[in-house]
């Protein structure tokens, strides 16, 4: 894509404007760091365009304070008070269950994930937002808590111009094939390889 230009233009009868305004489904997957970070970077651009933003985190505990959440809540306040940028909503759908599995059973966690997905489906049908980040959403798909086929069908048929970004390792192949944009983060080096734990301003 030299200078942002596509290498080929399909003969689909659409105008350049129509293609540019088409809703995007993006997937950030792979074992490397930066999947969520990249999604929040896209959300930041969307906010600047005045898009209504909704973030749904399917892994992070409600007690886990991440820097992006604090920043986006401030951006949402800026919009509410001064009309700058777009509206922002941030929702935590789990209790940190993907890694720790400490609170509740797998049945409880699966039900929580399904409830979260049901809410997202409702909002997509109602066109409640312009830009969705489904953070760490690949895990409930991988574990079979939410049917991948249902997710793909819902997103393929979503009305209007709603952009969706899904993050997490081990994205199902069917989701990858359905997406418009797929990025795989590959780890080359990581400070944890040298025994260093997560750092302020880097991991949170």
UniProtKB/TrEMBL annotation:
BP-aspect Gene Ontology terms: cobalamin biosynthetic process
Gene3D superfamilies (alphabetical): P-loop containing nucleotide triphosphate hydrolases
Keyword Ubl conjugation assigned: no
Top EC category: transferase
Keyword entries, A-Z: Transferase
Name of one Pfam family that matches: CobA_CobO_BtuR
GO molecular function: ATP binding; corrinoid adenosyltransferase activity
InterPro entries cross-referenced by the UniProt entry: CblAdoTrfase_CobA (IPR003724), P-loop_NTPase (IPR027417)
EC number: 2.5.1.17
Classification via NCBIfam families: cobA, PRK05986.1
Protein name in the entry: Cob(I)yrinic acid a,c-diamide adenosyltransferase
Origin species: Mycolicibacterium frederiksbergense
Taxonomy of the source species: Bacteria, Bacillati, Actinomycetota, Actinomycetes, Mycobacteriales
